[in-house]
Amino acid sequence: MLFNLLSPLADDLQVFNLFRYITFRTGGAIMTALLMSFVFGPTIINWLKSRQGSASNIREDVPETHFKKAGTPTMGGFLILLSISVSTLLWADLSNRYVWVVLLVTVGFGAVGFADDYLKLSRANSKGLSGRRKLFFQLIIAVGAAIWVSDLTPAPLSTALVLPFFKNLFIDLQWFFVPFAAFVMIGTSNAVNLTDGLDGLAIVPVMIAAACFGIIAYLVGSTVYANYLQIHYVPGTGELAVFAGAMVGASLGFLWFNAPPAMVFMGDTGSLAMGGALGATSIVTKHELVLAIVGGLFVLETVSVIVQVASFKLTGRRVFAMAPLHHHFEKKGWAEPTIVIRFWIIAMILALIGLSTLKLR
Q: What is the dihedral of CA 33, 102, 266, 292, to 10 degrees?
């Protein structure tokens, strides 16, 4: 909004020229989302506490140590969504349709999570929205977004899967692009949801991944940097750096309240939304495979669940003491802060590896 209102005035007042710079507006988005979290966080947490009452938000299939967290309000993802949405609308170029695609995916997936969290509280149980219904609504949103992205992206990249480590190599998925893109968005969304099991565990890797894709979006959307790094140029994607900045700021603000011991959980409202946002951003910037590296922690957690289920059904044995993977280490006696901080370190290492693909061509 500020870009659209103030940048035309730059010819008369030079100070408004700042709003033409994506880097300046990204910084503004980070600070706005962060400050909104600090200002509105306590009020929203108190409201969630009053709404939740005595309802249980702790699943039955978790280590016994989690039951002491009963009563901690969930649906904290509403604070994240509010901060991201307002900050993006304030600082991004609202004529850029990529911004709207990613923002609508984020809000749409967040709405699915909100419905799930609300049912958990209103029914006073931990089941919420059925898995099939949740997947159905995610599929509608993801397919619609994939078609829109394909329509916005210039050929030949509109249906392409770009391969990292290679200069000009990509695979034209043609009609398969839409189901592939939908899979990336839904898969990332649910992978973040699986990772969100300990205080602060999911939000920091999400923040790290968002920062990485803010850099990627800025580079992919610049002809100068894209040519220098020999990556595929996608015009207009640089504006997603502002959205990614809003994600970083909102994540930092939420971490203030979610740090151990957590005052609030993000719930499906936050985890589904943030995962969907990362997936959509990777689709637009044509770095879907790099997301699998940058978000490798989410992949690892998801694979642990798949392996556990497959092993038990096929052999009757469990590979892990409990899945997802962070619960396995809890069962092994690791303290919760130890697991969280070590997983953060892994997420940072994977992010650095993912960013290195920009130069290793």
A: -120
- For tokens 């850099």, name the residue: 215
Task: Report whether 173 contacts 180 (CB < 8 A).
Answer: yes
Strand blocks (E) in 146-253 = 160-162, 170-172
Residues of the domain holding 143: 21-356
Residue 286 lies in a domain: yes
Task: Tell me if 179 is assigned to some domain.
Answer: yes
Is residue 11 assigned to a domain? no
Per-residue pLDDT reduced to its tens digit, 127-185: 678 889 999 999 999 999 999 999 999 989 999 999 998 877 899 999 999 999 999 99
Phi first, then psi: what are they for 249, rounded to 5°?
Answer: -60, -45
Residues 129, 138 contacting (CB under 8 angstroms): no
Please give the tally of structural domains in the chain: 1
Tell me: pLDDT of 55 over 70.
no
Please identify which residue in the block is written with the tokens 């509010």: 82
Could you tell me the pTM of the whole model?
A: 0.94
